[in-house]
Amino acid sequence: xxxxxxxxxxxxNDHTLIERALVMFEKEIAKGEQMNPDIALSLITFLEDYxxxxxxxxxxxxxxxxxxxxxxxxxGPVAVMLEEHKSxxxxxxxxxxxxxxxxxxxxxxxxxTETTAEYVELTKNHIWKENDILYPxxxxxxxxxxxxxxxxxxxxxxxxxFGQDGYMRYSDMIDAFEHQTGGKVNMxxxxxxxxxxxxxxxxxxxxxxxxxNDIVRFYTHQNKKKIFHRSLSVIGRTVQKCHPxxxxxxVNKILAEMKEGSRDKADFxxxxxxxxxxxxxxxxxxxxxxxxxxxEMVHDIKPYRDLEGEKRxx
Length: 314
What we know:
The chain is of the alpha+beta class. Helix content is 57%, strand content 12%.
């Protein structure tokens, strides 16, 4: 986990964990008679213990009162969020009872599917409203010192409830459930391959991927003009054979350090023709930190260097 730098990071990181739990919970309930009640109840425990007793209470005890103190109207968005917190609790209580009954008599109540769908929809919308509306609104009216004080109170509160590593323990728990249930969201699964390819080609950057064995496996802009020419013949070859001999030692150094875990990024910039080209390399790792390969990104950043002022309208 990256170091939390602000009270908003703290709240939004909570939301990310909650959303991951919601995805797995919804999938488990959708199994109907095949549902594993122990997994479902464990996810409810997380949603109650961390989602409500930690995250929601940080908002209710510290964040919301400060927003009201700084000028938000009592019957405005804070009131709406408080009511939705109550609704979430009521839904979780009802759902937990239905799952407990299923565990005893092994008879699935179809109402459980409907109630879960209502709860998940409410909570997802709630998170969206906070992330995209309330939090930006609060950021405009809270001072820098307010933010520092809030973060301190959030950390103290979490420590008082769960100890020093409270967040990480719950984060590890969600990681474990995702591994156990296969519940991690794959957003690319809903896109056809040609859409993914066209999406990547639409970006003003050129990407290429080298696997853990230094073999070139992929590059974008296959049929478009590129800053540095690539041909299909490079696919399946080692990346060392795709660089001038004088730069191979640097390629080997970067890849070796990425494999051993001492480097995650390397970047360079050069004048090339009429462009100012930025070249960067990023280590690709799995959830456990194991090296899977390296992504290279090539980008002409001269247009950005020439920008001045602001552009806020189309």
